[in-house]
Design a protein that fits this description.
By secondary structure, the protein is mainly β. The chain is built from two helices and twelve strands, in the order E-E-E-E-E-E-E-H-E-E-E-E-H-E. The radius of gyration is 22 Å and the shape is elongated.
Length: 189
């Protein structure tokens, strides 16, 4: 989820409530069919979690939601040779630059995970924490082009562009489970 800060409140020896703020950004290359896209990802999230410590120690099971008001990605690709878009192959002038947006479908996404370290344990001033979990989410994709195919009299390129958008959507539908790994240092005051 990026870099962030959290606050934890101990309800009982076995239950903590935890929330915070995370921000992360990175660039990633994604290939779909014949097209290689550059993806700039911005992630903003606010976790609202309940940590359950079954034995009252440092192992925990966590559940809750991630509120993601600013999680999105911008994709673009500028093919330099004939490339298949949808069901047809087009030259670079017809394609131009493909640009798109990927947004998280819904601002609230469920989270489930396990972890180690209790930031509010009475016997600890400084604690190292580890969380391993998953966020369950879906994505919405939009794709456009500035190439000559967008103004052609025939709709063939525009129909193939919609198929390319559907292919990207299908690839992202396989990523509905977003893995989360966080490391932290907790100071008990």
């Amino acid at each position: 989820p990026g870099i962030g800060a959290e606050l934890a409140f101990g309800v009982t020896r076995f239950v903590n409530l935890r929330s915070g703020f995370n921000y992360g950004t990175f660039t990633w290359s994604m290939g779909t069919g014949d097209v290689d896209y550059d993806m700039d990802v911005d992630m903003v999230s606010i976790p609202l979690l309940v940590d359950v410590y079954p034995g009252g120690g440092h192992f925990r099971i966590s559940g809750g939601v991630y509120i993601q008001p600013g999680t999105e990605a911008a994709i673009d690709a500028t093919p330099t040779e004939a490339t298949q878009i949808g069901e047809h192959t087009y030259n670079p002038d017809t394609i131009g630059t493909l640009r798109g947006d990927i947004e998280v479908d819904g601002v609230v996404a469920p989270y489930l995970g396990i972890g180690f370290g209790n930031p509010v344990a009475e016997d600890q001033l400084l604690t190292f924490t580890l969380d391993i979990g998953v966020i369950f989410q879906a994505y919405d994709v939009s794709l456009t082009s500035d190439g000559a195919g967008m103004t052609a009299k025939l709709d063939t390129f525009r129909e193939d562009l919609k198929k390319e958008e559907a292919n990207i959507q299908k690839d992202l539908d396989d990523l509905k489970i977003f893995p989360v790994l966080t490391l932290g240092i907790a100071w008990h005051f």
